[in-house]
Design brief:
D-Maltodextrin-Binding Protein, domain 2, 5-stranded mixed β-sheet, alpha/beta, 368 residues, binds calcium ion, single chain
């Protein structure tokens, strides 16, 4: 934006008794326009799908609020609410869309019932890892497509966190072939749940708070959750025999920050950039925290329990992949928006895979 426009916007947004950055005082134009940086406070409510203070993710939202407040010199104050504190966890999309809350944090795949295409912006089975998703979002057209879709719901989306590759889940029997999924009741959200059902299992959506007791009492036979850190905190290693990898269904789940479009557009340009920049920091913070903590807690699970940590056999991975591809084919033949997002996502995945194989994969296999 040109300096003249910036000054004009500052005046429009201005309130009496402005705070002025000292360097601006050296400019005569600034002296005549004391409202460049106003002390008008924008107060936002941030609703989240996470339990209050949920490790990494809920904690990250509170840090995000602190960063925004500091960067904006107190011009944006964000009050963070855990799921259920202001609105139920799975109603934050609607709450931010309607303006009941100005900002939210969650996962786009929770809103698959509104548009199935949204799932691709979080995670889909055999999708991309965190690094590839970031590349698609920021540099491969993903975020632009997502922004276009969410605009229909009066929302501006930002990439804001990634779990990295998740674990495949906790089981009390070995998974040696696709037949072992038959009759298996497993907590499994999203498209992963559809794959499980087609493999002959039953996908259950137990809330996180009930997962431990449901697994312990045999209400469910198995559960996926996140990765070693969060899974350890849930205590699954005390009640399950087998911990399988990889999380084929969530290969790098990308989390979202959503802002009500009207509220975002009312911000001055500098505040918009502060919010946007803070989402980048949140994205980096969460992935780093997951990566660092998962290492520590994988070791704790090994040291403190008799759980066997096993890979899914190749035959199982191949079977799950075949079913996933069938489900994608059906999804994109019946929903044009899903096809558009799928095409963008999968074209990027295929293009990036060759490079990933001879860079990251070789590094991990041969060099590390
Ligand atoms: Ca999960």
């Amino acid at each position: 934006m040109k300096r003249k426009d910036f000054l004009k916007n500052g005046l429009i947004a201005g309130a009496a008794g402005a705070t002025i950055i000292s360097s601006c005082n050296q400019n005569s134009e600034a002296i005549n326009a004391p409202n460049i940086i106003t002390n008008k406070t924008v107060k936002w409510k941030m609703v989240t799908t996470w339990p209050p203070n949920f490790p990494v993710v809920g904690e990250g939202c509170k840090l995000f609020a602190e960063w925004v407040e500091k960067m904006s010199a107190g011009r944006i104050i964000i009050e963070v609410y855990g799921g259920g504190e202001l609105v139920p966890p799975l109603e934050i999309f609607e709450a931010v869309s309607s303006g009941a809350a100005e900002i939210g944090h969650g996962s786009s795949y929770y809103w698959a019932g509104i548009q199935p295409a949204f799932q691709f912006f979080t995670a889909v089975p055999f999708g991309m890892n965190a690094q590839q998703i970031a590349a698609w979002m920021y540099s491969g057209g993903g975020l632009a497509l997502w922004t276009e879709l969410y605009a229909q719901y009066n929302l501006v989306p930002f990439v804001a966190g990634n779990t990295g590759v998740q674990m495949g889940g906790w089981f009390n029997k070995k998974i040696s072939s696709m037949d072992d999924f038959k009759g298996l009741k497993m907590r499994m959200p999203g498209l992963g749940g559809k794959v499980l059902e087609r493999a002959g299992g039953t996908a259950v959506l137990s809330p996180g708070s009930e997962l431990y007791s449901n697994l312990e009492r045999g209400v469910i036979d198995a559960t996926e959750w996140i990765g070693p850190y969060h899974d350890y905190l849930m205590g699954f290693h005390q009640i399950a025999k087998y911990y399988y990898y990889p999380g084929w269904h969530e290969t790098g789940s990308s989390l979202e920050c959503i802002v009500n479009k009207n509220d975002f557009e009312q911000l001055s340009d500098d505040l918009k950039e502060i919010v946007r920049t803070a989402t980048y920091r949140l994205n980096a913070y969460m992935l780093a925290e997951f990566e660092a903590k998962n290492n520590i807690y994988l070791k704790k699970i090994k040291d403190e329990s008799d759980v066997q940590i096993l890979p899914f056999p190749n035959e199982v991975i191949d079977g799950l992949k075949r079913i996933s591809n069938d489900i994608y084919s059906e999804l994109i033949s019946s929903d044009s928006m899903s096809k558009r997002v799928y095409d963008s996502f999968w074209n990027f995945k295929e293009n990036v895979s060759e490079w990933s194989v001879l860079s990251e994969q070789i590094f991990l296999n041969q060099v590390q």
